[in-house]
Amino acid sequence: MDALDPIESVNTFIGTKDEGNTFPGASVPFGKTHSSPVGSHYAGYRYDDQQIRGFGHFFLSGAGCWEQGGLVPILPVTQLPSNFDHKRYASKYSHDGEIGKPGYYKVKLDRDITVECTATTRAGVERYTFPSGTKGTLLINVGQANDKEPVSASSIKILDNRTITGTVETQAFCGGRPYTTYFTTTFDRPFREFGTWGPNGPKPTQRESKGGAGLRGAWVTFEPGPVTAYTSLSQVDQQGATNNLTQEAAGKSFDDIRNEAQQAWREELGCIEIETDDWDERAVFYTALYHVLLQPLTGSDADGRYRGFDNQIHETDGWTYYEYYSLWDTYRAHNQLLALIRTKRSKDIARSILAIHEQGGWLPRWAFANQETNCMTGDPVTPFLVDLYKFGHLKGFEEQAYRALLQNVDGVPPDASRFQGRSGNPNYLLNGFVQYDKRFPKKGQDTDPHHGASATLEYALADATLAIMAEELGHKEDAERLKKRGLNHRNLWDHSVTDRGFTGFPRPKLQGGAWLNPFTPQGPDGFHEGTAWQYQWLAQHDISGLITALGGKAAAEARLDDFFAYPDLLTDPKRTVREKWVVGPYDYYNQFRYNPNNEPDLHAPWMYALIGRPEKTSVVVRAAQTLFVNGPAGVTGNDDLGTMSAWYVFSALGMYPAVPGTGEFVPHAPKFRRAVVHLENGKDIVIKAEAADTEKTQVVERIRSGWLSKSKDRIELAELWSGTTLEVDLHTVSN
């Protein structure tokens, strides 16, 4: 393998345009706190922004909702502004010389000010270099954050000539409640002048400002020379923020921390090595892996304390608490990739999910900080935890996890609970489907009956995965009833619906069991962020039933061909995917084709393999990979906390976890001549495809590994854990 530094192979600007919603600034793997520019976009920074409002310290990578952080943004200036609204005092900047690499970001602002960013796990660090001989001023803003991130209360206090503390109360993501973040900021040398501002304007020499919503912050002015600012965050208390800074940054220079951050990334990214002569392909792969390794975020402070879902302070004992779970997205690929390549962290992730259940009473769906937002629908936590069980990451907690999952699939949280859970369960358990009812009350942004058809399919998939766990743990009766419930997707199949020459589609049912009328498979009703065309494939756990519903294997193949515009893929894949597949990142409806911008049909390319036509899977995957490019618009759709990136990593390696809960991977044509996955158990997965050529459409001719001499239509987890070499012979398809 080549010895190129994976740090240099990452381009953190990938995904910063076209609603990829990534951030380009500095972080460490799974870090709690970041340092990244804040522009005019709700995710923080958009590549074509004209100004930077400050350098914030908390971001989500690739999420689609508003309220995405950018907390405590700091902006360097050479004189105090006349207006303390960061939209007014924002600085112009240049992309010339701008650098975005793991653990390091650099940009030049106007007035010849250079900003460099790095981070520890719980602190964001900036070095501000002002023009020679010029006094430098830093504006620390606590009353504003990312665009569309409301700040409902804030405080700031200048403790001494190097230290500032405070709080920011902001709205949680996607329907959540306000929550409080504590921060401590220190500087590597003393400031000479200071003041604070509030809604009524600036107050020179005043040390404190606090109150509700409105402009609020502080400024500090230094004698000429560079200044390094260290900012740590905590959701526990002020002491937690201060202790995080002491534990991780005390006595360290900017360059010390940058070197540590980049070495941490070097070690994490080194878990997979690839062989390719194409620099852009290398950048796309390692940036995708980088985005995978950003989250979930470290939740516990340096002393092990964290704020739980009961709003009480808890403490870990030898493990790390992680938070921010976009489960509707991550259960499909991100979870399995971390479970494979980052086993220790995945075990702690599993414990963290169980801690949420212990403290909150129910399992989460979209957990933000220490609260459930009730964002998205279905039951993603079930396949998420079952996969962690299959990967061996719930050892010692199997029965605890199983009981929590059984409560979740068989019940509904009480009205007093903040969790909405499977709100469609009463009708689902009684009649075998979630009713479509737009008037159903909700506790947050979403609730299952508002998207009853897709929720039914998601519940059925979840039940089928839990049946696997139940059987292996010896809960035979549970396993049988869950298996039966796993077939409930069939209850929504209407053989009378016709569209584009195909008959039979999943169709929403109303409370009493009547079909929704009128209905079109391309419409929005009953399906969450997709249509019946895309959701019809969400039955990968019941291939025989789906094939029967579709009218046999030949009919299933014909429908997949139409879904992917397969004949066009063979003649011009790059053009076809952009003209016939891709729609706007939020244009989910009125579609009848594959939507690679969103999660509901991410697994659909592997449906070909599951019905016995694996060569077509390789054709579709190769075409989809062309949507990932080395540039700011290089992510398709929102990256959704690394989900799209995880899809890409698996697709490039040549295997995908198409059926949750099975621990099996469906193979396809790898992208690179050679790839090596270094597992944490010391074993290696070596994938050889000597004929790989990204400019050609290629399919698998044969896979050899010697693993029990089995057919290679599936790759078993046990083979991967033991270390294996997969030799893949590829055949080029003539266009």
Helix-residue proportion: 25-40%
Q: Which descriptor suits the 3D outline?
A: globular
Which stretches are low in confidence, meaning pLDDT under 50 for 5 or more residues running?
Answer: none
Radius of gyration: 26 Å
The overall pLDDT, averaged over residues, is 96
Biggest sheet overview:
10 strands, antiparallel
- The fraction of residues assigned to DSSP E strands is 15-25%
Q: What is the number of helices?
A: 21
Instruction: Tell how many strands the DSSP assignment holds.
Output: 34
Structural class: alpha+beta
Strand order of the largest sheet: 2-5-6-7-8-17-12-11-10-15
Termini separation comes to 32 Å
Structure, explained:
This protein has 735 residues and is an alpha+beta fold. Helix content is 28%, strand content 23%. The protein has a ten-stranded antiparallel sheet. A five-stranded antiparallel sheet has the order 4-9-16-13-14, with no helix packed on it. A five-stranded mixed sheet has the order 18-30-31-34-32. α8 (381-390) packs parallel to α11 (452-472) and α17 (573-581) packs across α19 (614-625). The longest helix has 21 residues, at 452-472. The relative contact order is 0.10.
